[in-house]
Specification:
- The chain is 39% helix and 13% strand.
- The chain is of the alpha+beta class.
- The strands form two sheets. The chain has a three-stranded antiparallel beta sheet with strand order 1-2-3, with helices on one face.
- It is globular.
- The mean pLDDT is 81.
Length: 132
C-alpha cells in the first residue's frame, strides 16, 4: 500500500491526477481491479498495477535486458507485447500527453514537476544572507 501511495504522490506532484484504488483493486471499485488510476488522457483513467519487491527478485532480468536503453519491448508468440520503461521516461511521456490534453495547464504542470524532481530552491539572496 505504501508503494501505491508513493506512485500516486509522485504523479500528483507532477500535476497528474492520480488515485489509489481502495484495497488495491480487490473490491473491483468502479469495475477496476488495478492498484492506481492515472488520469493522463482525460476522464478515463489508465489502470496501473504496482509491484514491489525488497530484493528485486523477478526484476533483475528485465533490468538487465533494458540496460541503458529507454524502452524494452517484451514480445511473446500470440500475445500482446508489453512495454517496460524507466520512471523518467514514463514521466516525460505523460507530461507530453497531459500537455496535449490541456495545453493551458502545461506551464504550471512543468513548474510542479520541476519542483518535485529538484526540490525547493533557495531564495536568490540566500547566499548574501549567509555571507558575513
Amino acid at each position: 500500500m505504501r508503494r501505491e501511495r508513493a506512485i500516486v504522490e509522485l504523479h500528483v506532484k507532477c500535476g497528474i491526477r492520480a488515485e489509489r484504488v481502495p484495497l488495491s483493486g480487490a473490491l473491483r471499485y468502479r469495475g477496476n481491479g488495478a492498484d492506481v488510476d492515472l488520469y493522463v488522457r482525460g476522464p478515463e483513467p489508465l489502470k496501473a498495477e504496482v509491484k514491489a519487491r525488497g530484493e528485486g527478485s523477478g526484476f533483475r532480468t528485465l533490468e538487465r535486458w533494458l540496460g541503458s536503453n529507454d524502452v524494452l519491448f517484451l514480445i511473446r508468440d500470440r500475445a500482446t507485447p508489453l512495454v517496460v520503461v524507466p520512471l523518467h521516461v514514463w514521466m516525460e511521456i505523460i507530461r507530453l500527453s497531459a500537455a496535449q490534453a490541456n495545453p493551458d495547464g502545461d506551464r504550471d504542470r512543468a513548474r510542479r514537476a520541476r519542483l518535485a524532481e529538484e526540490g525547493p530552491r533557495a531564495p536568490a539572496d540566500a547566499i548574501a544572507e549567509v555571507t558575513p
